[in-house]
Design a protein that fits this description.
This protein is α+β, with helices and mostly antiparallel strands and 507 residues long. The protein has 15 helices and 20 strands. The protein has an eight-stranded mixed β-sheet, with helices on both faces. Strands 1-2-3-5-4 form a five-stranded mixed barrel. A three-stranded antiparallel β-sheet has the order 9-11-10, with no helix packed on it. Helix 8 runs parallel beside helix 14, helix 11 packs parallel to helix 12 and helix 13 packs antiparallel against helix 14.
């Protein structure tokens, strides 16, 4: 694999690197640079003459984002983790003696946009009213060998943002530097996760960790990634879900457990799917799916408030309101409403015929549950923009779910649909080990028919259930999709720091 040839700018910067070394200036010094302020704190705290003395000795470090050359003086913009601030550097200030080489030979000829520097100076207000730092000394901390993408800015507003997705997702580090709004999305993601944790912790839930490498890829209907454990000489799977391990903990005596789980599914990629993604799952003993719906509404309403300060979020042309309560619709009623066909009493062949009538592909490998899922996904899901619980699924669609207490053939399950996509899936959990074994065996028969998303039989989980699991309700939230909704992003890649990409060709 051969590295790409250097551009003219990259060659010039490497020449400057050598010039710095020849001048005895370390381009990557090891010494600590002591910082006592950041850009945001200075701009917020400085009040001019009122507290000028508090800002007569500031030390700040960051990346040079722009330079305006005015001969013996320059204005520039420094960016640190908190934001940006203007600085003013003058030849006579940093070179008070007759020797002006530090300014003329180093600052003017060897420093570039993108370099990271530390500056010492005092804060003042320019004639145009902008809070700035008057530089009295500077230290080069990192020489940048690659120029930043050019982004135009004026009066705090960004123009010509880098929007090329190949660049944005593959070089997220550069995207974060030059596009100010990108970092805000990921700060909100952290705020969202913290709000969820706070809600769960305050309600008595315990955060746990479960295995990522598993001998059985259980807990969901999905195609796994397969690897091999050399020491044990056995196949292993990256987890597709953490459900069965969390329910083992309920068997073991925990009342409420949760985990932010990194899951992996060997499937396609689009605007709402990435093969590696984050799920929040939690399981609560002695509760059911009705309690879980009420809890979900409270959790999401509180999380939206924590992230945005209000319950509404704008995504594309839609305004989503997470304020409780949410509408509840059975899956059969949803299909009947949006297709005109009542499939509630149909067998597999009847539903297959309904698929044909609706123009939906019905693979011969698929069973009744998968066919119903296709109908709902193709004809119904996109209609539900505001948060809506789709409830009471057919038994065939839900091999880990308790049978409905009043409606034979159904199970106590809901999916939460928002902006036309599922963001949560929840059950009254099946805790009958005999029934669970039969459901697993049905999944095994589907696997024999060629359904590569059918579930494996997890015999250890069956053994755990035989010790007795209390009545339990569980839920899984798509954290990436929820983040999309709360930050107004329309692609899952925009809420993942490093989304999956096809490998680069370097030669």
């Amino acid at each position: 694999m051969q590295a790409p040839s250097l551009s003219e700018q990259e060659v010039i910067r490497r020449e400057k690197l050598e010039s710095l070394k020849n001048a005895g200036i370390a381009p990557y010094p090891a010494a600590e640079f002591k910082v006592n302020q950041n850009a945001a704190a200075i701009k917020m705290g400085y009040k001019g003459d009122e507290n000028k003395s508090d800002y007569d000795k500031v030390s700040i470090a960051g990346r040079i984002m722009s330079i305006r050359d005015m001969g013996k003086a320059n204005f520039g913009v420094l960016q640190d983790a908190s934001g940006r601030i203007q600085f003013y550097i003058k030849q006579d200030d940093i070179c008070p003696q007759e020797d002006k080489s530090l300014y003329q030979q180093v600052w003017k000829k060897m420093i570039d946009i993108g370099d990271i520097i530390g500056i010492n100076g005092y804060v003042f207000t320019t004639k145009t009213g902008e809070t700035s730092i008057h530089v009295q000394s500077f230290t080069l901390l990192t020489k940048a060998l690659r120029p930043l993408p050019v982004v135009k800015e004026k009066e705090g507003e960004t123009f010509d943002e880098v929007t090329d997705v190949e660049f944005k997702y593959r070089q997220r580090y550069a995207d974060l530097i030059v596009n100010p709004g990108v970092k805000e999305v990921f700060l909100k993601r952290t705020k969202m996760n913290n709000a969820i944790r706070e809600f769960l912790n305050n309600h008595g839930a315990i955060e746990v960790d479960t295995p990522v490498l598993q001998s059985i890829p259980g807990g969901a209907a999905a195609r796994p990634f397969i690897t091999h454990h050399n020491a044990l000489d056995v196949p292993m799977y990256l987890r597709i879900a953490n459900e069965l391990y969390l329910k083992r903990l309920i068997v073991g005596g925990f009342d409420w457990v949760y985990e932010f789980s990194r899951n992996f599914r060997n499937e396609g990629m689009d605007r709402t799917h990435n093969p590696e993604f984050t799920i929040l799952e939690f399981y609560v003993a002695y509760k059911d799916y009705l309690w879980m719906m009420n809890t979900t509404e409270k959790l999401l309403e509180q999380t939206a408030m924590s992230v945005n300060g209000f319950t509404k979020s704008v995504v594309g042309n839609n305004t989503i309101d997470f304020k409780a309560p949410y509408q509840r619709v059975t899956i059969y009623d949803a299909i009947k409403e949006h297709t005109g066909i009542d499939i509630s009493g149909m067998d597999e062949e009847g539903i297959r015929n309904a698929c044909q009538q609706l123009g939906i592909h019905a693979d011969s490998k698929w069973g009744k549950g998968k066919l119903i899922d296709e109908i709902f996904g193709e004809k119904c899901e996109h209609h539900y923009i505001q948060p809506t619980f789709i409830i009471d699924y057919p038994e065939e669609m839900s091999p880990l779910t308790k049978k409905h207490r009043t409606s034979p053939g159904l199970v106590e399950r809901f999916e939460l649909i928002v902006n036309g996509k599922e963001i949560a899936n929840a059950y009254s959990e099946l805790n009958d080990p005999i029934d669970q074994r039969e459901r697993f065996e049905e999944q095994a028969r589907l696997m024999e028919r060629g359904d590569d998303e059918a579930m494996f039989i997890d015999y250890d989980f069956l053994r755990a259930l035989e010790y007795g699991m209390p009545p339990t309700s569980g839920i899984g939230f798509g954290i990436d999709r929820l983040c999309m909704l709360l930050t107004g992003q329309e692609s899952i890649q925009d809420v993942l720091l490093f989304p999956m990409m096809r490998p680069e060709k370097w030669d």
